[in-house]
Amino acid sequence: MKVLKLLVCFPLLIFAQNKADVYKISYDQYMNDKKTNITRMIFYQNQIVYFSKPEDKSQQFIDLKNKKSISTILFDNQIFKKETPIDSLPRPHVEDDTQFILGYPCKHASFSYFSNKIDVWYTEKSLAKGTPHSSYLPNSNALVLKMIFNGNQTLMATSIEKVENYKPTHNFLQNTQLVNSAEFEEIIIKSRYNRLIVFDNEILNFDPNRMLPKESELVTDKVLHFSKGSVVMKKIKITPEMKGSGSMFAKVTCKSNGDAYDRTGSVFVIPAKKDMSKTLLEAYLYGLEKLPVFTDNNGNKYQGIKKEKGYAPPIEILRFYTSFGVNYFNDKRKINNYNWADDVVYKGDVTSLIPTDEDEIWIGVFIGNYDSGGHIISLELDSYPSNEEKENNTQSKYINPLFLTVNTLEMSGQNYGGLFSNDTLRVDFEITENIKNLSLLYTSTGHGGWDGGDEFTPRMNKIYVDGNEVFKIIPWRTDCATYRLFNPASGNFKDGLSSSDLSRSNWCPGTLTSPYIIPLSNLKKGKHRLEVVIEQGSNKGASTNHWNVSGVLIGDIKKDTN
Predict the structure, then answer these.
(1) What's the domain range around 124?
(2) Are residues 543 and 490 part of one domain?
(3) Is the residue at 7 inside a domain?
(4) What is the mean predicted confidence (pLDDT) over 435-446?
(5) What is the CB neighbour count within 10 angstroms for residue 214?
(6) DSSP string spanning 470-529?
(7) Burial call 500-539: b when 16+ CB within 10 Å, e when fewer
(8) Average pLDDT, the chain
């Protein structure tokens, strides 16, 4: 009997020892049969496959014993966990051929997932189990040794070895918050970049009784309203994440709070340096008389629209147009099969326009309207990390705003940009440094909202630099009907078209207007003149045409490394 007990215990002892063994499986990656520098490793111990390094904030495991694929993420000081039954993963189709890989006989299976074909070769003879990709495991007894994605990307196992002193991470056993798959994907995405909330549900309206902020209130992170409520501003710090980012996006969320009409919206930046030239901020505080004035050939005056000696216009980073009454009017104009949106989200790449060399900047949002309810907006800046090494700080951003005719002080009397019917917008500027990839970002939209007005009439725009034509275009949008469900308050005509459907001079209700990129790499150091010529139409009685144009020179400053 004692001998029998010993025999029974012996295999249990061997099993216990084997359970503690850790196996490392290494893979090389090939692209179109050419080996890359990318390698991948997985570890296997105690029926758990580990895909991540212990220090990774996002980790993946397969628990073969409990037949679960487990993903965890450390985000905002909390570990979130998603569990997926192995049975719910993509199912394999067994193929007829076999291969020998690392001395193991391997079966062939294929997966079809999101229009991709994945071929795997796996063995069931190895003590180690697992797969280099957590979604593609033929069965719980398999070790995948070869994987091909869409016929051109291959992972090939190069070794299976037992390792010592490996301490796998078990953060899925710790105090975790279980979330569903959709919630987990949201958390994963948010963990990959940094979000700075600038404004959260601020109202931009018309309030003639709103008091102007005092100069003593111009402090960092304080929300301030100007120009009778139509402008909101804040001074923000340029965070380390913003300074080191590879790209930055501005995201505006907007909905009506009572205004039914499509309005011009602008997100803009003003430098916070006190030694800078005069800026629009002084006009917000003390009035339009603080701004330089351009007088056209008909004697009309335009305040602060272009770069002058001692004055720089704002840097417009986003141009957007509000919809006809999204959200507020959704239940006031119900139409069968018209599922109105709850709000409109505008998001654009502003990497080249945010002066990340600065420590602080002013950022503002304007919506021109004369409604007491107005619009509700939120603004965030999203910073995405760079995938490339910085160029040893040998260059920094060049940002030089030349002109902006969007009258963000409209409610304080700033004139519309109607000069082009009788004059040319001329801007003199000087390049004082060596600039690489010099370009002009030119944004143009036409306005005059009657039949035959510039909103609905194609008009030629031309740009000249030093007397030479460098760009010409007729800015025009024909896709406005795409955004019908953003526009519940838009009227419908007898022909079945809605106002929001109509083609316009480079804008649609409920959309962004992106800038044109005009290369100017031939411009050298020195003084230059830029001219904007637009074939603006004639006014009709009290109805006037005007053009909202913005021009910002961008590039990279080449620093002297000698």
Answers:
(1) 20-167+174-179
(2) yes
(3) no
(4) 98
(5) 9
(6) EEEE---B--GGGGGGG-TT--B-TTS-BGGGS-BSS--TTEEEPPEEEE-TT--SEEEE
(7) bbbebbbbbbbbbbebbebebeebeeeebebbbbbebbee
(8) 93
Token pair for 245: 């980012």
Phi, psi of 189 (to 5 degrees): -65, -45
pLDDT of residue 338: 97
Tell which of 179, 214, 237 closes a domain. Answer: 179
Residue 219 in this model has a pLDDT that exceeds 80? yes
| Strand ranges for 351-509 from DSSP E | 360-367, 375-385, 395-404, 425-431, 435-447, 461-465, 468-473
Residue 264 to residue 76: CA distance in whole angstroms: 37
Q: Identity (one letter) of the amino acid at 8?
A: V
Alpha-carbon Rg for the chain, nearest whole angstrom, is 31
In this structure, the answer to whether residues 444 and 550 fall within a common structural domain is: yes
Q: What is the CATH number of the domain that holds 24?
A: 2.50.20
Contact 505, 447 (CB under 8 A): yes
What are the DSSP calls for 204-235, one per residue?
E---TTPPPPPGGG--BT--EEEGGGTEEEEE
Highest mean predicted confidence (pLDDT) among 68-77, 101-110, 170-179: 101-110
Q: Which of 145, 179, 213 is the last residue of a domain?
A: 179
Phi, psi (rounded to 5 degrees) for 159: -165, 150
Is residue 8 over pLDDT 70? no
pLDDT at residue 134 greater than cutoff 80: yes
The 10s digit of each residue's pLDDT in 498-511 is 999 999 999 999 99
Tokens 């398999």 correspond to 142
Closest CA to 150 of 28, 30, 25, 27: 30
Q: What is the pTM of this model?
A: 0.88
